[in-house]
Amino acid sequence: MHTENLYQQLAGHYLKAIDAGTLRSGDRMPSLRVMMERHGVSLSTALNACRQLEQSGHLEARPRSGYFVRSLRRSGLAPSTEPSQQLPDPAQYVGIHERVSAIIAQGQQRPVAVNLAGACGAPALYPSEALKQGVLRALRQRPDLFGHAGPSTPNGEPAFRAAMARQALVSRIKLSPDEIIVTHGCIEALNLALRAVTQPGDVVAVESPTFFGLLQILESLGLKALEIPCSPQTGISLEALELAAHTYRDIKALVVVPNLQNPLGSTMPDANKAALVAWCAARQIPLIEDDTYSALSDSEAPQAALKAWDQDGNVIHCASLHKILAPGMRLGWIAAGRWQARVEMLKYAQSRSTEVLGQIAVADYLDSGAFERHLRRLRASLRSQREQVAEAVAHYFPAGTRLNLPNGGLALWVEMPGQRSSEALFHAALKEGIRIAPGLMFSNSNRFNAYLRISCGMPYTRELEHALRRLAALVAALPEQQA
Amino acid sequence: MHTENLYQQLAGHYLKAIDAGTLRSGDRMPSLRVMMERHGVSLSTALNACRQLEQSGHLEARPRSGYFVRSLRRSGLAPSTEPSQQLPDPAQYVGIHERVSAIIAQGQQRPVAVNLAGACGAPALYPSEALKQGVLRALRQRPDLFGHAGPSTPNGEPAFRAAMARQALVSRIKLSPDEIIVTHGCIEALNLALRAVTQPGDVVAVESPTFFGLLQILESLGLKALEIPCSPQTGISLEALELAAHTYRDIKALVVVPNLQNPLGSTMPDANKAALVAWCAARQIPLIEDDTYSALSDSEAPQAALKAWDQDGNVIHCASLHKILAPGMRLGWIAAGRWQARVEMLKYAQSRSTEVLGQIAVADYLDSGAFERHLRRLRASLRSQREQVAEAVAHYFPAGTRLNLPNGGLALWVEMPGQRSSEALFHAALKEGIRIAPGLMFSNSNRFNAYLRISCGMPYTRELEHALRRLAALVAALPEQQA
């Protein structure tokens, strides 16, 4: 796959300047006109380079002022390590559930003062009052709603499906509401997608690291995971995927979080997205995308979904309102391309239609225009919290800690120096009432034990700052395990 | 299995007298004292015989007056045919989804004036206002409920699980709330149960006929169905099951609806329930019970669940509030016995925790005591509607039509004379705006094509009577196909 375009070369040039300290935090970037003259490139190449650096969190666009180097750089934190190995480990059955559920259970047994383990926003970040009003309106409009079995069309309530189809346009996806099947959150959508295209024992390629929910789904379905190395900047490595496909000729599906990947926070450049969709289509490997986070991006331009490049129904698009609108509702959806009929069958057999009440309540809200205002507030809060947590990590954690500041989302992926063990950190922190998500939850291997995912969903309070400081001391006290 | 107890012999004696017309509709049964003297049996034997005939719909108990022969008999309708064949057809993969979904889709495409196809009550039969108040109360108590991900315990909201554990006591099941996992309706519970104990390609024994939802689940999971003949009176034939187990030594699970089976309306006698539970335990065949309907029984004494006899966790109990409280909510639960940990894992991986709002709203309602009053009203309405529909069938349908009047539930299972085709009837009726559920939806074979399931969930109006009369004329006009 040839993906290193001119704009990516240009972005790489400026990335080096930022990493070397030639361009510092707060510095204004050369104007697009200057870049065009200096490098002999077109306006769109200069613009795309800046947008990529914005996506990867290195630049920020200030209205009417141009691009500036983002503030994290002043702390001197190095960016996360790029994967050293391109050839994936052999595909293997997933055995992560016991480990993950033990970690979750231990975390729930102790009283936790500061929970940094989740990947969700604080309750106050979500529009509870508006959702409540939506519920009341729905019950006024349909007083006997609870007396009717199922929505008026089997795959979901028409108003909600229409609202989701409009929402998908933001990610550059054109869908008819008929193509949308409402699910119990993105988790059920991913289950249905994988059940539609695999049999137990099949090999499924996934990102490495990836969120443990996906690994648990693979485990529960008896599937083998082939973990493809990912760049903390640009997401799944297409080179590694190509290599893997030479070794494993029986990849039955690929699952990717293209925007604000969990836990990395990486966002795939558009060129990579296009190349990946074409690559999968050419090999007839179903491409399952989890687009849970893209509405949480700080970029000026909304992030495109992989489905935007789908020509022949080979991309199965899964999405959810869980992280962006209502963690307390399980409202997801799936557009399954050429597996639409099979997914409809599986959904009907697995859990029937999703409840109507939430769908109507939310459709009204999305149509009221208040949703966009909520999203703007949510993004701004998360961005501020993310930057403050990152600053604290930069300030308090031991030298050599590495971290990318993602361009949106709910968490930071922190790499501890000296191969310290996040499992040991998890237990030490729990004793002090602090819960983290240790890196070994995010892979079927132990490769990420020196990492932890820290939530940025909570308001940055004195208590949170204190917890981060305490956490940093615990990290410093852990033995280094480097050879 | 020796299951023909003394009380069953006695019940059989009186059943013959009813069928022969010696005892007629409205006749008072001999008193228990007379029965004891006449047959030389104990009080409990006489009482059990009457209770079994009450369960099978032949007698009704009138407070302080004793047992009476039920009114349907006056119409001269013969009871449904007992299965002639005991050895099941070979186990085979299920291929019913296309047939069923085509029937459902055709039914939905045409404007339907009278829908007799469902197995649900009319919206007015459910306590919409009380449920709405429950929702409002829940939102007042927890204003930021939609901002919180998941219930306060992973398997469901504690108040709801406690209410369900109390509810289970009615079916003589003793469970701790911790043993209850909340699901998206009984359908998800059955999925999880089957996924916990089978692999694709396994053989699962089911009742024949059975509800198409179960057959669709088997199909979607790649399981083979072994259809065990059922008596329209007493449910699954234990003799047939024994025979089947001799031929098929690899039965991996058995799914049974012990109370008010769908579509038969049969209820297993307690002796059969006990024998079945012991038989499965001895052979280590997981017994999955679907207890969706038992609260809709007219019997004086509540029906016991199979789980009531479970000694060693071999019974997986699945239940739901869908038919009895709120068709518009997807609130079910599962108590998975020795597969509890595996089902917890599968539920978490399949769809995460079920939404909280409905659980809190309903727990409050169940705890208010209004639930029992609602159930009494619901049972009385359904009974009256069921008897009126049965009378209309008896009156209008061609001679030779057979029908059991079940002792509760939402539908009647009608056998047309002369092997008429319910598929042909479905299409003819649809043209006239009447929807029925043809018998071939209820088996992977064509064995039940001469049957149809008629809903008794709707109020008995002039329009409904007219539709049944019209349906009867269509039945009469169908060609007989008897050899």
Could you characterize what this model shows?
The structure is a homodimer of 483-residue chains. Chain A has 483 residues and is of the alpha/beta class. Chain A has 3 domains: 6-75, Winged helix-like DNA-binding domain superfamily/Winged helix DNA-binding domain (Arc Repressor Mutant, subunit A); 98-124 and 376-477, Aspartate Aminotransferase, domain 1 (Alpha-Beta Complex); 126-371, Aspartate Aminotransferase, domain 2, CATH 3.40.640. In chain A, 41% of the residues lie in helices and 14% in strands. The first copy, chain A, is built from 15 helices and 17 strands. In chain A, strands 3, 5, 6, 7, 8, 9, 10, 11 and 12 form a 9-stranded mixed sheet that branches. A 4-stranded antiparallel sheet of chain A has the order 13-14-17-16. In chain A, strand 7 (224-231) and strand 8 form a beta hairpin. In chain A, helix 6 crosses helix 12. The longest helix of chain A is centred in the last third of the chain and has 27 residues, at 370-396. The model of chain A has no long low-confidence stretch (mean pLDDT 92). At the A-B interface, helix 4, helix 5, helix 7, helix 8 and helix 11 of A face helix 4, helix 5, helix 7, helix 8 and helix 11 of B. Chains A, B: Keywords: Aminotransferase, DNA-binding, Pyridoxal phosphate, Transcription, Transcription regulation, Transferase. Chains A, B: InterPro entries: Aminotransferase_I/II_large, HTH_trans_reg/aminotransferase, PyrdxlP-dep_Trfase, PyrdxlP-dep_Trfase_major, PyrdxlP-dep_Trfase_small, Tscrpt_reg_HTH_GntR, WH-like_DNA-bd_sf, WH_DNA-bd_sf. Chains A, B: This is Putative 8-amino-7-oxononanoate synthase.
